[in-house]
Specification:
Layout: H1 17-31, H2 34-99, H3 104-110, H4 113-127, E1 131-135, E2 141-147, E3 153-155, H5 170-173, E4 184-190, E5 193-203, E6 209-215
Antiparallel strand pairs: 1-2, 1-6, 2-3, 4-5, 5-6
């Protein structure tokens, strides 16, 4: 007969007595009294509520700040857009005066820079503008009037420059008319300074393009 031997169970790891005493003492300190059993859950609950409340308040404050920043950016963008539109309207109004000023079409056709200088300075002073230009049909500046820091106007500062390839000038020289009309505006760099330039065509009595005027 064969007998089956049952293996001895593995011995259980024993926790050192000193460690047992430590954990037992700690448990009794925390949960050993009725007062601790009552206070501890409320303490944990208070801690959890505090953490959750801090998280919620932080999220709300961050969202509020984000909304405020977005609102300020929208208001700033709207104000800048309105300011540009207002400036363009003012420039168009002044250009109409220049285009229909007696002697300007004839002076452009004859390239009479002296008459143009006098007209541009007079109009610039009356309308409180920064820059007025008169260009020949090929885009060359014939006359210019620019206001200085002291408020006085100087003529001839940009005379001779070729602006035919500038974005707001080229379509006017090419007599391009879009859904907004025959006047164009855009930012150009003149003498290292960015300027919002509005450009309008000038025609003679036969409706022929004799040049353009620009305001910045």
């Amino acid at each position: 007969m064969s007998s089956t031997m049952t293996p001895d169970p593995l011995p259980m790891a024993e926790v050192p007595e000193a460690e047992q005493d430590f954990f037992g003492s700690l448990y009794r300190r925390i949960f050993g009294t009725i007062q601790n059993k009552i206070v501890l859950p409320f303490l944990l609950l208070t801690l959890a509520v505090t953490v959750l409340g801090t998280f919620v308040v932080t999220r709300l404050v961050a969202a509020s700040l984000q909304d405020r920043l977005t609102t300020q950016l929208l208001e700033t963008s709207r104000a800048a857009s309105d300011s540009i539109v207002s400036l363009e309207r003012h420039q168009l109004d002044v250009l109409r005066l220049v285009v229909f000023t007696v002697g300007v079409p004839d002076a452009l056709e004859n390239r009479d820079s002296q008459v143009l200088d006098d007209s541009l300075i007079a109009l610039g002073s009356n309308q409180n503008v920064y820059l007025l230009l008169a260009l020949a049909p090929d885009g060359t500046v014939i006359a210019s009037a620019q206001r200085g820091a002291n408020g006085d106007f100087t003529s001839g500062v940009l005379d001779g420059q070729d602006l035919s390839n500038e974005a707001p000038v080229r379509p006017v020289l090419e007599e391009t008319i879009d859904e907004f009309g025959d006047k164009y505006a855009g930012v150009v760099t003149l003498e290292g300074e960015p300027i919002l330039l509005t450009v309008a065509p000038v025609r003679n009595a036969e409706d022929r393009l004799v040049g353009v005027v620009a305001m910045g």
